[in-house]
Amino acid sequence: MMDNKKKHNELAPCGVFCKACPSYNKSCFGCSSDDKSQPRQSKWNCKIRTCCYSISGLDYCINCKDFPCKTYTKKLLSLHQDDSRYEYRYEIPKYFYKLKTLGEEQYIKLQRRRWKCNKCGGTIKFYHYQCDSCGEINLLN
Description:
The chain is mostly helical. It has helices at residues 47-55, 70-77, 87-96, 98-102, 104-114, and strands at 124-125, 130-131. The protein has one domain (18-131). It contains five helices and two strands, in the order αααααββ. Strand 1 (124-125) and strand 2 (130-131) form a beta hairpin. The model is unreliable at 1-6 (pLDDT under 50).
């Protein structure tokens, strides 16, 4: 796993753009953060995070030869299939492959653009696809 100083806490090992999560920087510092002082503790039990970091020693699941594996599919892609609030999950594999060609910095810039509010420039948060700054309902870019 990469040095924590270089790690982008905006991007989870599974490809979720943490900055678009309503909990980001409130009760959670991002799935890749190792800061145990955060109020939200659920990520420490995440099977995808554990597999990627502790078992496989990878930065991101996309770098695994088995991507998308059974654990990834079960936890991220098989749940909430008929719930539009979780639509962002099903787009991850399509975009996540771009991490390999763009590199981490450019990929994160791509995600920031995708989740940027067209009206005010704030961040669109998933589940309701609403801007955290102006409240505008947005479709992803």
